[in-house]
Specification:
By secondary structure, the chain is of the alpha+beta class. The chain has 4 helices and 4 strands.
Length: 160
């Protein structure tokens, strides 16, 4: 096969580019300061993740990964950190299923380390001990989500 044919074949396949990564929004709250710094109880940490995708131009997608960390000591909130880490991804040549999989796995996987660092910096700057979020397997999260949707679809169908 000639170099021209090989290059043409490579260009015809799916392409993915990371065009921009940025913090879209970040907030940090200590609603019970300064009294919360006197508390000695074991903190309870809750992590929530959310993702939003905006297709704002042909083949360009803004993916926003929202990471919310809430720390409670007893019934009182010690802190609330929320970061919206975003990226612009160029995606072309993918079929619908593969496109959804890339947007739900590769994109948040790319964004998560940046969001994790911003959350860690916010918590440390807030006067709390260092905190590092554990890695997340977005492929498994996506697979679990698809399996749950399939089960719900089967449950919604009437028996024949």
């Amino acid at each position: 096969m000639s170099d021209t044919a090989a290059n043409g074949a490579a260009q015809a396949g799916p392409t993915l580019t990371v065009q921009k990564l940025y913090v879209k929004d970040a907030s940090f709250e200590i609603p019970n300061a300064p009294m919360i710094f006197q508390e000695q109880a074991q903190p309870q940490i809750t992590l929530n993740l959310a993702q939003r995708v905006n297709n704002f131009a042909d083949g360009l997608y803004e993916v926003i990964l929202t990471v919310t960390v809430t720390c409670k000591v007893g019934e009182r909130t010690a802190y609330l950190a929320e970061v919206q880490q975003a990226g612009v991804f160029g995606l072309s040549g993918f079929n619908s299923n593969d496109l959804q999989a890339v947007l739900a796995t590769y994109c948040p996987h790319t964004l998560y380390p940046y969001a994790r660092q911003v959350v860690s910096d916010l918590i440390l700057a807030g006067g709390f001990p260092p905190f590092l979020l554990q890695p997340i397997n977005f492929e498994q999260v996506y697979a679990d989500s698809m399996a749950q949707r399939a089960q719900q679809g089967e449950a919604a169908q009437p028996n024949a």
